[in-house]
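Take our chain:
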Amino acid sequence: MSRVLVTGGSGFLGTSVVAGLAASDAIDCVVSADIRVPSPGVRLPSVLYDRVDVMEAAGLPELLRRHKIDTVVHLASIVNPGKNTTVTEEFAVDVEGSRAVFAACVKAGVSRIVVSSSGATYGYHPDNPDWITEIDPLRGNDDFPYSKHKRMVEEMLAELRQSAPQLSQTIFRIGTVLGPTVDNQITALWDGRRVLKLAGSDSPFVFVWVDDVVEVMVRAATGGPSGIFNVAGDGKVTVREIALGLGKKLLVLPPWVFAVALWVGHGLRLTPHKPAQVKFLRYRPVLDNRALKESFGFRPSKTSHEAFSAYLEARALR
């Protein structure tokens, strides 16, 4: 029986993961740790809720000991920065917060950590392979904070595998998560009258349904294989197919025009995004999920296309 603490337990993914863990017969205790207070509608009677700020995690080792936690699921991260969020604040949560959590796990004698990483770790580069596997280099993008920070966290974990081999690691490099209530910087691209497409790029996405992400997290927290795994549904969806599914026309722009628009918009504080976001759309890493199926032993219930269709159905109901 596992005793699990989830960082970032009140976020979009965290709420679902906490519920999935609480429903598992293989888990004896679930602690949801987040700086945000969960709304009464999502609080579960079997879950313990604790206010934890990963940027001030000095008391985390004691919390882990008090609840006899053996497994930590680390989700805390700034995925969608606000207009006024600074890169310094993102770094403090994404990198320094992760460092504090990992150190607390070692200090408290936690035996396993499950980490939500991202396909962004590979970076957005013109020479990315058509399908990226777990053995491809982690290059990130220094001018794209989220990508850079995820790479830095994985570098930290690689060092930890040498200095603290007793702490088993399962790292999931996750594609774009879709679900009935998802609202993020990806779905925001689809809210306008037209869907943006950069000239010369299909901007392919790999999608994964939130229930599939929850299932791999629960399996990893209850004795599943350690290792590093891309998490995505089979196949990919191009921006043209996305527009077709939404019933919208494409707005095709040269990359340099979009870069100028972002530069102006960011300068006027109309958007948190900078010109580096152009790479985010042009050179998307397309995740190969064979290791997830063959080594971890999990086949996503929905392909990328099916996850997108399920999102469209939920969007229509909303």
